[in-house]
Structure formats: C-alpha cells, structure tokens
Specification:
The chain is of the alpha/beta class. The protein is about 40% helix and about 15% strand.
C-alpha cells in the first residue's frame, strides 16, 4: 500500500513524504511491523525491493513499512523541476540539468538546508507516530539508513521494541573513515580480499600501460572496476582468476565478469523513478559526512596514486560544487537510550568500514544493549550479499534468542 503524506519543512514549503506497506503473509500469525530504511542517502525505498523475500524470512509475521525519505523516490525532491519524472533524464539528471539544479540549490538555501539528516529524522518520527502498536515495532536501517535511524532516536520519541543496523556507519566525527577517505577503505578491503601472490601479479599488470586488455575494462580503469566488484562477493572472489588470466593475455574472465556486474547493478531496483537522488547524496555528503571540506582533486589523486583499488567518491567531493548546510547540535552525538539493538557487519565491507562499525558500536553500548554479529568476508548490504547469515541472525534476534558472534555465508549452490 502506497501512502503519500504532507509535511511542512522549515522553509515553509509543504513537502510530500511517501511510504509503502507490504502486509505480512496471511499464512503467518501477525507479530507487528518493521520499518525499513534504505541507504544512500539518495536511495529510495524501492532499492530494498530485491531483498523483500529475505526481509520477510528474517521478520516473519511483520508488515514491512518502507518510506522514501525526503529527497528520494516519490517523496519531494531537492530539484523538483530537473528531477521530475517527465524531465530529460527522468528523476536522474541529464548533463544540461546539473547547472540549473545546483543553481536552484544556492538560490534557495533555506529550502536546500531542509533536506538535512535531522529533517529526515524528524520525518521518520512523524511517520512512526502512526505505527501500528498492536504488536512489536522494529526499525531496520542499512548504511545511511543506520545514520538516519540513530539521528531519529535523538530527535524523536520512536515507539520501538528493537533496532537492526545492517552495515553500521562509523561515528559521525570520524577523521579516518569519512567519505573523503573512501579510496583508502576500498584499497584496504581489496587487498585483504586477495592473497599475496595475486597482489603481486596484479601490481605487475598495472605497470603495463600498453596492455590491450584495458579496452575491455568498464570505464577503462581496472583499479576502479575492481573496487566496484568488492560490493558483490561472488564477483569479488573472481578477481584472482581475472588477474591470472590477464597475466596470460586471456580477457575472457574479465569480459564475462563485466557483463555479470552490469546484470547485478540492473537488479538493484534503482531505475525509472527510483534512480538515486544525486543532489541529495552530494548535499548530505558535503555537509555531514566529509571531514575535509577543503579537499582538492590534487589531494585525491595523490592519495590514490599507489592504491590498487580506488573509489570515485573522493573525487566527487573535491571542489565543493554544492552548498553545505551547517551541522546541528545532533551531529556526532548518540541517542540517550537505545532499544535492544543488533548490529550486522561484514569484515570486507567496502562502503562502511568494519573497524569503524566496531568503534561506533562500542560508543553506542553506553546507551543500551548492543549485539554485534560479524559476517566473515561479508560485504555491504548483508540482506543482499549474505542472506543466510542475515536471516539467521535477525531471526534469532527477533525471537529473543542468542545471536552468533560470527557467520560465514554458504557458497551459492
């Protein structure tokens, strides 16, 4: 069920917030509802659609309630003209739309600033005030959704019986794991995923600037392509084979993996009206998740010079192309109290650092009981990439049973 709501923001404009409800199966006794927060921050609730069956298995008997947080999906957008479904690139931005969109962001700073994490957190409090309290009420967040959930617990009195954090972001005040240092994280995870022999062969490959296989690499940059594969463990684990074959002049594993990577991306539920909201991504990243606002492209390039795996994100932060809103009093703080909380994190997560999640969980433990479950060699968005471990851990948590400290996802059949 899709329910659009209206809510006025501090700029005085009425914004539309969009939620959807997927009822629990009639074959299972109803136990309550779980609110699912997507990542990004630019991803709509529809980005969780590929995992719906996994969530239903993990939360049996629970209605799934999935909002589009402000700025995404069918909720109000930062650039309503350029991000309109009937515009040149639909809810994405065509090349000629970037200038007018960013210009509009600067021209109306009060409205732009209303798309902050705290405003989205207040939205969630408004929406969850109408939660069905006839059963258990749970909140799940992945990636940015974990940041949003924790902010919401600071600014609103959420009626929660439990919290599940999948891919916990590092502490907001981090100067080690912020977005400007994403290449360092990606490079560390990439190197941890490979044996030393493969790394040596890979270094030798990168020294060959005349190699003909470069024309078969998506985007032409093997370091960036391999960095992208880290998000998909089944594809990540092909990297040693690709490196070995490229060393022998054979591009077939590379070409096949590139095609499978495109298929994997297409299955993430981020097309049509649900394309990632890039203006929102850039705004929140610049305002709250970048510890180096004066970052330059020269610094980005210097830091990536010797990396074997790289991320495009630091380059997108360099130059300050969008306005920034000031961090508010909630930034860098923890909720005063937490419901019982489960944190799930993979040791090879290239988006939210495992060490950063452990550090954040230790801080949060002063606010309530935290259960931390590690997925060995797990990547980001465990509901997608490690469904067995995810369902097992969440199911135990929901039922009030002990959750295993570690889990290894079985190899696909």
């Amino acid at each position: 069920m899709d329910v659009p709501l209206r809510h006025a923001d501090p700029s005085g404009e009425s914004l539309s917030l969009f939620i959807r409800r997927i009822p629990a199966s009639a074959a299972v006794a109803r136990r309550g509802e779980v609110w699912l927060l997507s990542g990004g921050p630019g991803e709509s609730g529809a980005s969780l659609y590929p995992m719906i069956r996994t969530y239903q298995r993990a939360f049996p008997g629970f209605d799934l309630v999935i909002p589009d947080h402000r700025g995404t999906g069918r909720s109000s957008r930062i650039c309503p003209v350029q991000e309109a479904p009937d515009s040149a690139d639909g809810t994405g931005l065509a090349g000629a739309e970037w200038g007018p969109c960013i210009g509009a962001m600067y021209a109306n700073l009060p409205r732009t600033s209303a798309f902050s994490v705290t405003e989205a957190a207040q939205d969630l409090g408004l929406l969850m005030a109408h939660a069905d309290k006839r059963g258990t009420v749970l909140l799940y967040g992945v990636s940015y959704g974990t940041q949003l959930a924790l902010r919401a617990l600071q600014v609103s009195d959420l009626p929660l019986d439990g919290l599940v954090l999948d891919g916990l972001v590092p502490p907001e005040t981090t100067e080690t794991w912020d977005l400007s240092r994403r290449t360092a994280l990606v490079d560390m995870v990439g190197q941890q995923s490979m044996d030393e022999g493969t790394l040596e062969r890979y270094r030798a490959l990168l020294m060959d600037n005349q190699a003909t296989w470069q024309q078969d690499v998506p985007g032409g940059d093997l370091r960036r392509f391999f960095g992208a594969l880290l998000s998909f463990p089944a594809l990540r684990d092909r990297i040693p084979e690709i490196v070995q074959h490229l060393s022998d002049g054979d591009t077939r594993p590379l070409v096949a993996t590139a095609e499978d990577w495109k298929v994997a991306l297409a299955q993430l539920g981020q097309s049509g009206i649900n394309q990632p909201a890039l203006p929102l991504v850039m705004l929140i990243a610049a305002s709250e998740n970048n510890a180096r606002p004066d970052l330059t492209l020269s610094t980005v390039n210097d830091e990536a010079k010797n990396a074997l795996f790289v991320s495009p994100i630091p380059g997108l932060l360099a130059g300050g192309h969008v306005p920034r809103y000031p961090r508010d009093k909630w930034f860098g703080r923890s909720p005063d109290a937490l419901p019982r909380t489960l944190v799930l994190h993979g040791t090879l997560d290239p988006n939210t650092a495992y060490a950063g999640a452990k550090e954040h969980a230790a801080t949060l433990s002063t606010s309530g009981h935290i259960t931390f479950s590690t997925v060995n060699r797990g990547a980001h968005l465990l509901a997608l990439v490690a469904p067995h471990c995810f369902v097992t851990a969440v199911g135990s948590f929901v039922d009030g049973h002990a959750v295993a400290d570690h889990c290894t996802e079985p190899a696909p059949e």
